[in-house]
Every structure is written in C-alpha cells, then in structure tokens.
Amino acid sequence: MSAVAHVLEKALDGERIGDDDALTLLRSRDLVSIGRAANELRARKTDATRITFIVDRNLNYTNVCVTDCDFCAFYRRPGDGREGYLLPKPVIFKKIEETLALGGTGLLMQGGHHPDLGIDYYEDLFSSIKARYPIHLHALSPPEVQHIARRSKLTVWETLSRLRDAGLDSVPGGGAEILVDRVREIIAPKKTSAGEWLDVMRHAHRLGMSTTATMMYGHVETLAERVEHMRRIRDLQDETRGFRAFISWTFQSDGNRLADRVSRDSMPTSFDYLLTQAVSRIYLDNVDHIQSSWVTQGMKIGQVAMGFGADDMGSVMIEENVVSAAGTTHRTSSEELVHLIRALGKTPVQRDTLYRDVKVWN
Asked: What is the pTM of this model?
C-alpha cells in the first residue's frame, strides 16, 4: 500500500491524521484519490445532497492602516488624504439597506488598523446599526480587535466583551495568513503574532461568539508551515469548538510588495488550491464546514471545489475591495450560484452566517 493510500485509509476509518500524514498528502500530488476521500468525509460531516451559500456584503469601512503588510494592495497610510478613507455612518447605513433589499442577512465588516479609532467608535457604530437593522454583524478580524484593545488601553477580553454588548455577533478569521511567526515576520512584521491571533479567537469563543478560520498561502511559507497552521486551528478547535468554518485561498500578487519576493513559477495553481482544500477537509476533522474561494479562484474552480471536500460556496459578495485591489475581480449573484449548484446535481441552500437555512431551492 502506498503512503498516500495508508493515510487516506486511516482518515476514512475515522482515525485522526497527524502532521506528517498531512504533509505526505500535500507532497504527493495525488489529487484524485485525496479529493475523493475529502468528498467522502464531507458527506459524513454535512448533508451531501446540499451546497450552501450566503448573501452578505463585505464592507471595508476604512482603508487607513498603520500595519504596512507586504501582501496588501488595499491599505493606505495615515495622512493619505487622496486615497485614504473612513466611511461616514450614512454611507454605511445605505450599504446595509442595499444588502437587505437584495435578500442579504449579514454584514462582513473589516478594515485597516486606523490610528484614530478606539473602542468608542465601534461601540457607537455597532449599536447604531443594531438599532436600525436586523442584520448579523460578522466583523473585525483578530488583528483589528487587538489594535482596538491597544488603542483603547483595554485587554482583549474587555474589548470583545464591550463589542459583543454593542452588537458584534461573530468574528471573521481574517488576518491569519499563515499562523507561523517565521512567515509573519517576513510578510507582516507589525501584525499580530500567531499566538495573539489564536488568543483573540480563544477569548471570542469563551464569550460565546462563533468565528471562522482562514489561511492565505502560496507566498513564503513551506508545505510544513501550511500544516502547522492547520494544526494550530485544530488544536484550538479541540479546546473551544468555536470555529464554524475554514476558508483557504491563494496569495494574490498584483499591486503589493510581497509579489517581488515570490517567484511566478512557485505561485499556486488551481491544482494546488484543490489539493490544499481537500487536505484541509481531511486534516480538520473537528471543523464542520469547508468553504471554497471562488473570489480568488474564479467561479469554475469554485464549483469544482465542491467535489474536493467543500460544502459551501461562500458569499455572493455584493461588495469586495481587498482581493480586487490585488487584481482579482470575480463577481457572482444568487442566481448564478443556484445554477452552478444545480449543475452539480445538488440542492442550493441560502444560509445565514451561522449556517441556518434562509431559502432552499428544491
């Protein structure tokens, strides 16, 4: 029996695979066998007849940021009066109204680490939104939470508690990149460390908030460091059970400084993307949902990914600014997602942020 077959047999028998096993799968390039096993494990974890998606908006409330991440083409430094912005409340309210009018149920709100915004700003904004609109606030990645805590001279626990009381419903997994400090010191030295990112999520889970976990790969990390990233997610999930989904995507190279350090020949292909996603399904045996990333891969690969361990196509993405700033500008609609899901012989289901059914197309 080959090494890959041995690992897959172990996983399909219900045994947890180890880091070396995951590395064996990533190095093997045996996409078909690994994808088939990932799909079988997906069918055991979630209803194999259904594929879900969400209608929400990715609202980037500011692009002003002091963190200077090399991979980011979206941010502008403080004092950039020409291109830096902070959306006023009336604009944010109008965007929420547009989202609700399109059948949206959630607001994914993330932005830069603005030097002038403390917790009072977010408490006022969140409470104002909740007083006006019946919408789920999935907002503020762990680095933003840590920035707000430092700016406001509060602990992370105090910050999250106050934000939750003001209306924060759940925390997105942005800012994870690769949860290995060697990598983070190269691509984002001013950002949260791996341990700090995980600690914000630990506090959020203990406060009763569910969150997502992400991985942005294909730059300076090794395959072993991708596995280490997933291990840290899996370990925290064993501890708290607070992650509801895992989403991975490839580094987008346009318009940022990190692109100069990454060889075009080493950039991940669609094959690499599907293999990494399939391995994430097999390795993350305690995370229910794996989401494909059509936003970075394109709609066809996003659809194909449904046969490689994913059960969710993510958001229609009414608005998106960060990935598009790096040169990738795919768009879709509920109608297109329903068509693509039906073409796979599956039942399309619009869900909310917490994976509850909103609409089922029978």
From this structure: 0.91
